[in-house]
Amino acid sequence: MLDFLLTSDAIMALLTLTFLEIILGIDNIVFISIAANKLPESQRNKATNIGLIAAMLQRIVLLFFVSFLVGLSEPFYTFDSSWLQIGISWQAIILFGGGLFLIYKSTSEIREKVEDPSHDENEVKGRKIKSLKQAIVQIMIIDFIFSIDSILTAVGMTNGLHENHNYNLVLMIIAVVISIGIMIGFANPIRKFIDSHPSVQLLGLAFLILIGFMLITEAAHLSGAKFFGNAVGAIPKGYLYFAITFSLFVEFLNFRIAKKKKNK
């Protein structure tokens, strides 16, 4: 296990996944803050911390469930025709459906953030909260909605890293625990940074589109799909790491240029 966690692929996957989990968690932090702010001052910190810890536990449970389904790689139905050959398994269905969901969700989020940034916040603000219990329940519901793309991203980044799915599961759990821990300790600074640099969150959503496409191709590859006799190949994760690293480097240069202009 330790040998796997210290490999370059596992370390890169962990760093990238932790970064994306934090980016995906920004909206969650905003919504938790809105829900907590409806409570008396003495209960706000308690609601925020309980909400984030409950969110972490909820995501770990979902990781076990999704990882179990992804582990079911044996085809239960085979389709064979003159133009398409494919073996359909639960693994392929989860990866393919997850890829489509990530592309749809990310595209919708980008559109909302560009055209109506306060849409989701206004919906949460309109809900009444009278007690700590109600706040926790609402936080759990909100986090469940936002956990889906988080879990699918984790599966996409770790699937295929190791033949033993339990090793990949441990890596995903570590990333979730680290990201939630960072959010608990630095929730407000992270939120303020993203508010002042919204391009970082849009960049994270753009990465999810890439991961969604990668999940779709991986589903086809693992199903042994062939279109007109041509097999579908898996996209090496190194390409994704390069795209993310290069994009972040460009964004860093933009920060530096903007900061120098501001100082002048």
TrEMBL record:
Intracellular or extracellular location(s): Membrane
SUPFAM superfamilies linked to this entry: MFS general substrate transporter (SSF103473)
Main location: membrane
UniProt keyword annotation of Electron transport present: no
Tagged with keyword Cell division: no
Topology with respect to the bilayer: Multi-pass membrane protein
Membrane spanning stretches: 12-35, 47-70, 82-104, 135-157, 169-188, 200-219, 239-258
InterPro entries: Integral_membrane_TerC, MFS_trans_sf
GO cellular component, one term: membrane
Taxonomy, superkingdom: Bacteria
Key words of the record: Membrane, Transmembrane, Transmembrane helix
Pfam families: TerC
Family of the protein in this entry: Belongs to the TerC family.
PANTHER family listed in its UniProt record: MEMBRANE BOUND PREDICTED REDOX MODULATOR, SLL1022 PROTEIN
Name of this protein: TerC family protein
Organism classification: Bacteria, Pseudomonadati, Bacteroidota, Flavobacteriia, Flavobacteriales
